[in-house]
Every structure is written in C-alpha cells, then in structure tokens.
Design brief:
The structure is a homodimer of 316-residue chains.
Chain A: E1 6-12, E2 16-23, E3 26-30, E4 34-35, H1 42-59, E5 63-70, E6 72-75, E7 80-84, H2 95-103, E8 107-111, H3 112-123, E9 132-137, E10 141-147, E11 150-151, H4 183-186, H5 188-201, H6 213-221, H7 225-249, E12 253-257, H8 265-276, H9 281-284, E13 288-291, H10 298-315
Helix pairs in contact in A: 1-2, 3-10, 5-7, 6-7, 7-8
C-alpha cells in the first residue's frame, strides 16, 4: 500500500470519550468529545461512538481499523470489557464484537495503560526497543511492559500494574490490601496530601491547592527547599519500583509519563540518582530513563497504533 | 523422529561441574562430576567438559545437543560467559562456540537460574503455562520469567533477578547498593542470622548451626513457636516480592524451589496467605503457587531441555 493507513483511536475516559483519526504519530482530526456521564447505559454510549466512527470515516476514506483504550479491566483477546473503574454499567460488554458488527472495521480493545505504553513503544520515546517499561504518573500510577518485542498482558490481561507494586512490605495498606503500593505514595492525591502535611509540620502551612504536583514543581523551581525535598522523596520512591522492574525485566529503557512527570528534572534527577545507585552493570550501563513523548494524546495514538498492527497481522 | 531425542545437560557449579544425559524429565546417565577448583584456567576445564561429553556420546548415540547452565552472567544469544560469581578466570569466554567446535554438537549456554526456570516450565511444575515466574530460594535468591510463552532474558541477559528486587525502599543496603533486596532478608545465611538474633533476644539462645533453614523447619514442626513465627515472617517477605511479580506480569503460576522451599507448608502457608491478601481478582483467582518439581537436578534437566528446543528451532 503506498499511502499511510489511517486508524481511529478512541480514548474512553470517565469524563469524556475522545476519538481521533491517527496517522503515524499524529492525530490529524479530532471528533467532538462525547460526555461519558450523559449515558446511563453502555448501549447508548456505544451508539454515540459508532456515529463518531462513521462521521470520521466519511471524512477520511483511508481508515482501516479502530482501537479503543478503556479505563479498566479488559480482555484484550476477546475485546470484552469486564468492568471499568469509574463508569457504571460497563460489566462484561463485548465491545470489540459490537463495534465490529456495526462498523465493519476490525476493532481492538485494550486498557488505557497498555494503549499509552503502545504509543510510546511504537511511535514515541521507546521506539525501536524490544524490552521496555512504560509508567504513567497521575491520579493513578499505571504501566505497560514490552518484553521480547511483545506487549506483556499476562494470563488474565492484568500485567503492567506498576502502581500496585510494593515499595515497603510494612507500608500503608492500599486499595487491594497491598501494603506499600507505589500509587499510595506518589499518586497525585497522595503527593498533595504528603506535601500538605510536610508544610504543616514545618510551620509554613499551605492550602491543599498549593500542594498539587504542579504547584510543588513551581515552588521548587523558585527555590523552595521543602518542595525540592518532596520531589527528591518522590524520585526515591519511584526509583524503587523502577529498580524492581529493571531487576526483573532488564529493559533497554523506561519511559515515564503522566501529569506528575511534567515536573521534569525535579523528578528525573533524583529518579536517575537513586536508580543507578541500586543497579549493577548489565542493568544500568545502557539503560535509558526517558520522559514520555505523548501527553494526553498517548491513549488515542496508542489505541490507533495497536489497531493498525492488529489489522496488519490478522486481516491482510 | 520416532525416538525421543537425548541431550546432555551440564550444571556448572562453583564446586563441581555435573553432566548428565537427559531424556524428557529424567537424567538417565550421570557423568562423574568434575571438581571445578582443580582447574586454574578455563581452557583445562573446557577440555575436561569436552571429554565428558564425548564419553556420554559414546554410550548414548541419540544425543543431539548440549546445554550448559552457568553460575553467573552469560550472553545467551552468543553463548559467551561474561563472568562467574565464584569461579576465577571465566571472563569473556565464548563457551558455546568453543564447545561446538570441539564436539560438533549444537550448544546453548545460559545462566543457571534460567535453566532451572526452563526445567520447571517445560518439564516440571509450570508445564503448559505461557506466563510463569520461577523463584529459587537458597544462599542466593534467583529466578526466571516466562511471558507470552517465551523466556524473558531482557536487553542484556539479566532479567529474572527476583532476589535483588526491593521489599523495603528504606531497608538494608545490599550487594549492589539496592536497598531492601529480598535476598538480604531470606537468603539462607540471612535466615540463619535473623533466627540466631531472634532466639538470642528471646532469651533462648541457639548456636548458629541450629538456626539453619532446615533446623528451623524441624523446630517448627515440633511446635517451636519462635521458629513458626520466623517462617511466617519469611513467607510475608517472600509474598511481597511475589506479589510485585504478579502485579507486573500477571502469571498463571509461580513456582518456588531451592533448599529453603523444602520447609513446605511452613513456608507456603504464610506465603499464600499474605500473597492472596494483597492481590485483586484477575491476579489471584486462577493463580497457582507451586513447589518446584526438580531439586538439585533442575539445572541439568533445564539446560538439556533448552538445548533440545534450541536445536529444534535452529537446526532442523
């Protein structure tokens, strides 16, 4: 085929469902977002998604596949959504077959963390690697793993949950009973709460909205020593989870994205320092710790890239 | 081929090099062990290994390949031994090509933890799985990982180092600078030292030789509450590292072997309890925690199995 094939990527979020037409690493057309909460049942929302797909196809005849990233637990092989973290009613929905029936296009459905990892692997910072760990730092801490040049989804599509791994076997008890889960220390809200407590204890109280990761990054950039120390501590905790990924998987690169990673060097400097201090030669000599290339578009780009790869392998 | 092909498995240890003829899951003929320390240079030891291979071939004409498990850092693809943990002089030795030249047989060389994992995966407790974690508990704590039906060796052949992963980001500083490495808590010697301290503190001092994992298992079996508590604590710490493997890799099964695992239920009961308390449904509902099938023969069986698979894929 001489022309670059196009795919639709759909980033299904708790607030909105965003669809775009993706050409390689670029969203060349955005559909108007659908408000997720306008629909009390999956059927109506699926109809709205189908209409968006048809609208985009009418404008772009080169579209050959559709990829959907879902915020929850998905059976990738069968394209069934088992359940979603923040959207009611989405239980055991065979989304792939429903969309394929209604659009006639090949569809892949995966969880959003895998889509983000796929975007960075195929089109972003991790391009060209065969062994890669991608971590997304936001309200939740998620991840995706590539080993031997393949996505690792595990036996029941759960692999890549870096945020649930423990950095302290005697630590805080998390959502799933897991002690010391990374997410419970460096998730958005936990960073804010820790900062709020730390400022309070230091006698220079700050309101919660001045303790967000973005506010802490701004404060540290202006020389606030408490904020700098807080970022050092975040880097240290993240380094432990990344180090565990390295000892287990010996990746060529680790890509770090998500809102919290926008702190840049404030995060990456301590992360690198604590990480390299705790690995031996073969694990660190060629290791690259890279900021993610894609921001909020990662899910869309990754879902589309996955759809293209899948349709290449299975339909051509 | 109507007859079951045979392979030679070689378990290269710091004390002795043991070779055997392997048929499926059984060593059908053992060569007399070679004392590793009799040789000050690799060349002489390699000659001795070649003689053992030729002796075994003379007795078993069906031998089609040779596998070698090495206690150290090996480039599997090129069959080069970079260095060994406890044997001097083995630096950048192209063992695969040296043995292939001298025997005319296809040879694979991997590290011993991968060979053990391969044995459990192809011939042992993990047979039939596509996503598996194997952990060996001894003086060192090692491991091997299978994902998507393939061994995961990582970018530089280091993957699977479960014993170096951290269970406490503020824990003891280990051999590679890594804080809170599992091996530094539940390696053979650390179990003994912890038990010695614990008995000392409780006022019922025990000599070190009554604090070995085997002695502790015997004591716990006779109702010693301190010993039982020690095993509970070992199980808890191991559970954290296993849990991290599960959140990252979502395996179907985790196989646990090595000397420390001979404690049986004393180890596996707390391990299961703490592990299942800290995983969500998709990670634990179908998860099997299994004792290894092979003991000290795992390395030989696994090296031979790997050699057979490799020669199948590349030479036929």
């Amino acid at each position: 085929m001489s022309e670059t094939p196009l795919a639709i990527g759909i980033d299904f979020g708790g607030t909105s469902v965003k669809a775009g037409v993706v050409k390689l690493d670029t969203i060349i057309d955005h559909a108007p977002p659908i408000a997720t909460q306008d629909f009390t049942e999956p059927a109506g929302l699926i109809e709205a998604i189908v209409r968006v797909i048809e609208d985009l196809r009418a404008r772009h005849p080169g579209i050959v596949a559709v990829g959907v990233g879902m915020p929850g637990f998905v059976d990738f092989e069968n394209g069934v959504v088992y359940n979603l973290t923040n959207v009611r009613g989405w239980v055991n929905i065979p989304l792939k077959s429903l969309l394929e029936e209604k659009t006639g296009l090949p569809v892949v459905v995966d969880n959003d963390a895998n889509c983000m990892a796929f975007a960075e692997w195929k089109r972003g910072a991790g391009q060209g690697t065969k062994h890669l760990v991608c971590i997304s730092l936001g309200t939740g801490v998620g991840g995706g793993i590539i080993a031997n040049g393949q996505m690792v989804r595990g036996a029941y599509h759960g692999a890549g949950e870096v945020g649930q791994t423990s950095i302290d076997y005697q630590g805080r008890r998390g959502h799933y009973g897991n002690m010391g889960a990374l997410e419970d220390y460096i998730g958005n809200n936990e960073i804010t709460a820790t900062a709020h407590d730390t400022y309070g204890e230091s006698g220079t109280s700050k309101p919660l909205d001045e303790c967000s990761p973005a506010a802490l990054a701004a404060a540290a950039a202006e020389g606030d020593e408490t904020a700098k120390q807080l970022w050092d501590d975040i880097g240290k905790k993240l380094a432990t989870a990344v180090m565990n990924c390295c000892w287990l998987l010996n990746p060529e690169a680790v890509v770090i994205g998500g809102g919290v990673a926008r702190a840049g060097a404030l995060l990456f400097e301590p992360l690198n320092k604590y990480l390299l201090d705790q690995l031996s030669g073969p694990f660190k000599d060629h290791l690259k710790i890279l900021p993610a290339r894609f921001g909020h578009e990662a899910g869309t780009v990754g879902a589309a890239a996955m759809a293209l790869e899948w349709s290449d392998h299975h339909h051509s």
